[in-house]
Amino acid sequence: MSGRALAALLPLAFLSLGASMPVLVPDVSQSRIDIRYSFTGAELLLFGAILFPGGEAPKDGADIAVVVKGPPQPLVVREKQKVAGIWMNVESARFRSTPSFYAVASSRPLSQLVDERTAAIYELGLQNLQLSPGAGSAPEVQRRFERGLIDLMERRQLYFENPRGVEISEGVLYRAHVEIPARVPVGNYTAETFLIRDGRVLAVATRDIRVEKLGFERFIARAAERWSFTYGLVAVAVSLLLGWAGSALFRRG
User: Can you give the pTM of this predicted structure?
Assistant: First the structure.
């Protein structure tokens, strides 16, 4: 545990002695993740302590679930079907706000920790994400596209679950590892820790994480956002130039 976490733990320990509910003291190994040209991903460590009333952990213990969630973004999901032997986009669904990244790790499978209602309230698990689909589609169509969206994000390694990803030591210290892929979107992330016992969420604590591009990658990202038309023209020109150069080299060979 880091010195910063211990410094926060000591005063809270005294305050918790008279508390009637347990208290979470969470921390993360990195509050900022910088993406450079050589970035291949990162491993985020979430750790902390559980402060129980009276300073003693219950004999039957408690469970922990941690959720790392990326900034919300709108998405359009398209469904392809084979028409006259050709794969074509035949249907689509728009989602107003979906997490750009979602990872959940728990000390036991979530189905063993909470019921469906509690899981839905706290968005614990991929099947309980609030994806905010656009209006106009029938419920069964929305559910089909929601499953397709989750499957797509899982294949991109941007959504995943780890039902045995949290280790709890002596009933009071916990730690979990969450893999951050190389293609992770930039923005403000949240790392939420849930203390669960007897099917109830007893405490929730949150830490903020910033994922940001630096150097040339940051310049390219800002250029694409601020001057999208000029960026598009330059990208097309560079592609044509590279294609012409490759063709010229091929003819010489």
Answer: 0.75
